[in-house]
Amino acid sequence: MQDEPSPGRIRIIIAEDHAVVREGTRQLLEREPDLEVVGEAADGERAVALVERLRPDVAIMDISMPVMTGIEATKQIKASHPNTAVLILSAYDDDQYVFALLAAGAAGYLLKDVPSAELVRAVRLVHAGEPVLHPAIARKVLARFAAPAEQAKAVSRGHNGEQPLTDREQEVLQLAACGLSNAEISSRLYLSIRTVQVHLTHIFNKLGVGSRTEAVIAGLRSGLLKLEDLGEG
């Protein structure tokens, strides 16, 4: 075993109050050559302290923990270390938790029934800046923020009556909302990954948001996206 982190590895902390779950998650992740668990915490307060000390790339966070909840820990981590992506791994899909955590800045939200391969994939995706939502969570988000038809007509156009997004930006936003990665959007639209990233940056700036999840929510609220548009992509 190495005492120092290997270059290029994704550095992870795990915050979970059940030791058996922590150990199992750690063993699962450390089977992957590009993942490295650098710390564990049994409560939210220790998780915040670990992020402060270790500056990990990803923090895997449970919600229900002693001393400090995962919600408050996520808020503090994102306020102090915005470059650390927070991935929620929880048994709970209650609306109050889902929306509080997304508002706090969580990049992903998975339920503990996901296959192990999906958890590994999610860690890589949130580290790359792409959001990850369990299908059950995604449905809640879409249903919660979808704008009524009359509201959509009123706010989906800019000050001059023009669409705030170009047709291409609209396509990129819709595919992002369907859960496609940047690489998948690139392949679908025959664009380079760099061009997709540029389009996403323009979308973020126009909608006044800082992430794909926020962009999708803003699109739903404004009527730029509709639930029926968000199939399998």
Describe it.
The protein has 233 residues and is an alpha/beta fold. It folds into two domains: 10-142, Response regulator (Rossmann fold); 146-229, Arc Repressor Mutant, subunit A (Orthogonal Bundle), CATH 1.10.10. The chain is built from eleven helices and six strands. It has a six-stranded parallel beta sheet with strand order 2-1-3-4-5-6, with helices on both faces. Helix 5 (116-127) links the parallel strand 5 (108-111) and strand 6. The protein is globular, with a radius of gyration of 18 Å. Mean pLDDT is 82; it is low at 1-5 and 149-162.
Q: Care to give the gist of this entry?
A:
With 233 residues, the protein is of the alpha/beta class.
Question: Which residues sit in consecutive blocks of at least 5 with pLDDT less than 50?
Answer: 1-5, 149-162
Distance between the termini: 43 Å
- Percent helix among the residues? 40-55%
CATH topology of the largest domain: Rossmann fold
What portion of residues belong to β-strands? Answer: 5-15%
Order of helices and strands: EHEHEHEHEHEHHHHHH
CATH class category name of the largest domain: Alpha Beta
* Number of structural units classed as domains: 2
- What number is the mean pLDDT? 82
Cα radius of gyration in angstroms = 18 Å
Q: Mind telling me the CATH superfamily name of the largest domain? A: Response regulator
Q: Based on helices, strands and strand pairing, what is the structural class?
A: alpha/beta
Output the keywords.
six-stranded parallel sheet, disordered N terminus, 233 residues, Arc Repressor Mutant, subunit A, 2 domains, alpha/beta, Rossmann fold
